[in-house]
Write a structure and sequence with these properties.
The chain is elongated and about 80 Å long. A hairpin with a 5-residue loop joins strand 5 and strand 6. Helix 1 crosses helix 3 and helix 2 packs antiparallel against helix 3. The N terminus and C terminus are likely disordered. A four-stranded antiparallel beta sheet has the order 1-2-3-4. A three-stranded antiparallel beta sheet has the order 5-6-7. The chain is of the alpha+beta class. It folds into two domains: 122 residues, PH-domain like (Roll); 58 residues.
Length: 215
């Protein structure tokens, strides 16, 4: 009996097929799930909102003698904690099922918790890139593709830039060494012959995604 794993259909981890001659893997990585929980699933903001709701509920339950019925508060707090646990768990599963790959010719994004999708983004179809740094060296790398190339927003979530629904922007989320990976991407991009375009767009955060790149 041979061992199996959830991505055993892959020719190599994170890749839908064997690399062609002349192409090699340069870097592979995945999101940090804690950072993903904070920045993609907004666990902190939701926790603050729940805390505010509990405070308001506490004030409303106070009677004129300063006594309070704790039962509704315990029920509400339990539901809030369950919701936060579900958000954190989804972030963990999302990070665990994600693998980003840089080769010397393209960016490959394997994403999806239930339905696994793999996006191949050739460097020559990438029009720009931008780094959004977070604390402790983590960061997002957003990839700008040409206007004629599209990927659906729902297909990318949560691996897309926030608030860009009309033109979804594929993003390598919450990388442990965002700046280093960004520099590596820049060098690979230049080597692929897109160096001038990348240099003029490397500080932008605009990107679209391609229908033809879904593997």
């Amino acid at each position: 009996m041979r061992a199996t794993h959830e991505h055993e259909w892959e020719a190599a981890p994170g890749l839908p097929s064997a690399l062609p001659p002349g192409e090699r893997i340069v870097w592979q990585g995945a999101p940090d799930w804690r950072s993903l929980a904070v920045h993609a699933f907004h666990v902190r903001k939701v926790a603050l909102y729940f805390g505010l709701m509990l405070a308001i509920q506490t004030l409303n339950l106070l009677d004129t003698d300063g006594r309070i019925d704790w039962k509704p508060l315990w029920i509400a707090a339990s539901l809030y904690l369950l919701a936060l646990a579900l958000l954190a768990g989804t972030a963990w599963m999302s990070a665990r099922s994600t693998l980003y790959t840089l080769t010397n010719k393209r960016v490959v994004m394997r994403i999806g918790i239930v339905l696994t999708l793999t996006f191949n983004l050739p460097f020559k179809r990438i029009a720009g890139a931008a780094l959004k740094p977070y604390a402790h060296g983590k960061g997002d790398i957003a990839l700008a593709l040409y206007p004629e190339d599209r990927i659906g927003w729902a297909h990318l979530w949560p691996h897309q830039r926030a608030w860009h629904v009309t033109h979804p922007q594929p993003t390598l989320r919450c990388l442990h060494d965002g700046a280093q990976v960004g520099e590596q991407l820049l060098q690979l991009w230049r080597a692929a012959g897109s160096g001038d375009q990348l240099r003029t767009n490397e500080v932008t955060h605009d990107m679209q995604t391609p229908q033809g790149l879904l593997a």
